[in-house]
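Quick illustration, no need to memorize.
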Amino acid sequence: MYRAPTGGAVGGSAGLAMTGADVGWWIALGIALLVTGVLLLHANRRRQRSTH
């Protein structure tokens, strides 16, 4: 049995993707992470602007 090398979160995600998980779930997860990152960045910028 081949075991994919895992190197942290990225390797773990690649390992899960190799197990045959539905690609749609990975696309949805990527979009959710992207939206979360944009919202956090926007909130952080607004907070920095209000303190200066």
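The chain has two helices and no strands.
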